[in-house]
Recover the amino acids of this structure.
């Protein structure tokens, strides 16, 4: 039987749902923020606009997940407070999305690894027994499918375009890979969610993701690093210094005047 | 300075099935598939859209502005050939009146 709303969820399930929804929201928010850093700086005008679009899409997705987490019974702060008034240790994002934007190769590689993970994750969540998640995913999947087309298209082209592009893409993959594996670090209370058919185990998603990204990366002549080297910690609030730096910039204006309305 | 840009693709946008594809602008792209994706982001995100075409600009054969007179400007008055000479609206109204509309 499905769970129609947070009110129907038992207490341990509520905590696990809040953790999981917050993790998804934080991933989207921070990647969206990193993407937005290209606005005005992307290597070509068309990609400048495309990345600004992606950033807006991710902000929208973040809002969706923050809103679900802020259901009264789940008890997360409302979306604005979640984004602008939590400290680094309260964020549940994978470290992948907090790393600085780097060069264009890193930006593309990170996006591709993330977009592929979203595709796998959303496909599974479309079957979620928690109705609000299944309903939200039905809408978000369309945009994520396009995101994946876009980033995969660039991986396929840049992987073996020139010696320099290949070299940069490989270097980017080597840096991003362990952090991308961290996308599949379970959130606290995962077993409760799995038992309630709300989501499959992260391990399952990780295997599906590996099966999808490996052939694409290899076809782009890139060497896929070891799947055992995960840079985790993000899902329990352990982050790199980059997150604190990012939050300092992203939250500065909101914190200057906390009671301001926008 | 040499041009380091990718080729230009002209973008045609269709808002509804059966409507014509209308030229809306152009994008730089390395190949047709990427041109479609970039065109989607530049031109189809806010407009209603069911189909996009992209065509490499240098694959279009066009007349030259220098030849405007030769191609498009009649030497003598042929206004008698223009459809504006017909008073269609009046005719239609008259026919409708006869049929009792």
């Amino acid at each position: 039987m499905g769970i129609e709303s947070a009110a129907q969820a038992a207490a341990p399930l509520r905590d696990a749902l809040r953790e999981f929804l917050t993790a998804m929201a934080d991933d989207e928010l921070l990647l969206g923020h990193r993407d937005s850093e290209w606005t005005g700086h992307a290597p070509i005008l068309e990609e400048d606009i495309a990345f600004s679009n992606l950033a807006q899409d991710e902000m929208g997705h973040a809002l969706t997940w923050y809103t679900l987490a802020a259901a009264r019974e789940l008890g997360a702060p409302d979306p604005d407070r979640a984004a602008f008034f939590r400290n680094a240790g309260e964020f549940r994002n994978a470290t992948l999305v907090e790393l600085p934007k780097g060069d264009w190769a890193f930006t593309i590689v990170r996006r591709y690894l993330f977009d592929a993970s979203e595709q796998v994750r959303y496909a599974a969540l479309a079957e979620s027994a928690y109705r609000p998640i299944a309903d939200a995913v039905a809408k978000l999947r369309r945009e994520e499918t396009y995101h994946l087309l876009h980033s995969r298209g660039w991986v396929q082209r840049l992987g073996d375009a020139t010696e320099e592009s290949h070299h940069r893409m490989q270097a980017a993959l080597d840096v991003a890979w362990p952090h991308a594996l961290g996308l599949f670090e379970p959130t606290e209370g995962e077993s409760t969610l799995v038992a309630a058919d709300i989501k499959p185990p992260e391990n399952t998603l990780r295997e599906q993701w590996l099966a999808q990204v490996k052939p694409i990366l290899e076809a782009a002549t890139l060497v896929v690093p070891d799947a055992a080297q995960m840079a985790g910690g993000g899902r329990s609030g352990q982050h790199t210094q980059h997150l604190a730096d990012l939050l300092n910039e992203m939250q500065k204006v909101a914190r200057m005047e906390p009671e301001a309305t926008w | 300075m040499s041009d380091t840009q990718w080729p230009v693709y002209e973008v045609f946008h269709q808002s509804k099935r059966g409507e014509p594809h209308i030229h809306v602008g152009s994008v730089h792209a390395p190949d047709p598939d990427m041109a479609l994706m970039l065109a989607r982001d530049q031109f189809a995100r806010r407009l209603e859209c069911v189909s996009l075409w992209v065509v490499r600009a240098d694959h279009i054969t066009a007349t030259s502005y220098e030849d405007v007179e030769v191609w498009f400007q009649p030497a003598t008055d042929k206004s008698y050939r223009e459809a504006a000479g017909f008073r269609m609206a009046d005719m239609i109204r008259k026919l409708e009146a006869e049929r009792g509309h």
